[in-house]
Amino acid sequence: SPQYPDLNLIKYLWHSLKLELNAYPTKAKKIQKLWQRVEEQWATFTKKNCQQYIDSILVEINAAIKARGHNTKY
Question: 31-42 and 9-22 are packed helices; what angle lies between their axes, rounded to 10 degrees?
């Protein structure tokens, strides 16, 4: 049976978090500062954000099912 390792909801959250962390004007030079920023950004995620991620993954899942094991545009 086909497997789709990229059909992973958490990838959307991590991608968004990475974009937010990269938007800071300076890089965190210490792990404590990086962790502080991660916590700050994580706290900004809303139910609406999560629903958008769920909706996106559902589109990908449906495309994967329709492709019957072949490549999709995702």
Answer: 120
- Extract the residue ranges of the chain whose pLDDT is less than 70: 1-6, 74
Confidence (pLDDT) at 1: 45
Range of the domain at 48: 9-67
Cα distances from 15 to residues 2, 11, 19, 30, 42, in angstroms, run 25, 6, 6, 21, 12
DSSP letter assigned to residue 54: H
Domain count, the chain: 1
Amino acid (one-letter) located at 10:
I
Cβ 74 vs Cβ 11: under 8 Å? no
The pLDDT value recorded for residue 43 is 94
